[in-house]
Amino acid sequence: MTRRDPIRTALSAILLAAPLFACSPQAAERAPVAVAQKEAVHPVSGLKVIPLAITAEGGAHNFRVEVAESDQEQARGLMFRTEMGADEGMLFPYDPPRVLSFWMKNTVIPLDLIFIGPDRRVINVAANATPYSEDQIWSDAPAIAVLELNGGRAAELGIGPGASVSW
């Protein structure tokens, strides 16, 4: 009669069972969900990227926008950036709504600033803001967000006061 080592027996059982857990159908079914839930992050800014849609005279248009939420992220905005894709932008959310003021200090590319009201409609658009300008650009009423797009993009897509914005 041979005597079995209890530790060796336990280790053997664990090693034999490990591949079964790693390859179980439940683990394989959960993997794509975990990947899908991972937030998109912009490769340059490191900010969260979300979908945003604007419905205007020219129809609906979809964007992928970076979200500048913290005071530090909002202070930096798109400063020093040299390019941005046609369907990209940056969203600056605010709570509570307030009259907002922006400038273009250290901003290299011309931008359209789209001020969005509490009803998620465009209040006003400051088109083709001048790079490096320290002139204040104001919302015409209390806003919950500002969307920055490439200069001229709002006119190209027919985005103006009253357009609906969703994110």
Secondary structure elements and pairings:
Layout: H1 6-22, H2 25-37, E1 40-41, E2 48-56, E3 59-67, H3 71-76, E4 88-98, E5 101-102, E6 111-116, E7 122-129, E8 137-138, E9 143-150, H4 153-157, E10 164-166
Parallel strand pairs: 3-4
Antiparallel strand pairs: 1-2, 2-3, 2-10, 4-9, 5-8, 6-7, 6-9
Describe the protein in words.
The chain has four helices and ten strands, in the order ααβββαββββββαβ. The chain has 167 residues and is an alpha+beta fold. Strand 2 and strand 3 form a beta hairpin. It is globular. About 17% of the residues have low confidence.
Summarize the structure.
The protein is of the alpha+beta class and 167 residues long. The protein is built from 4 helices and 10 strands, in the order ααβββαββββββαβ.
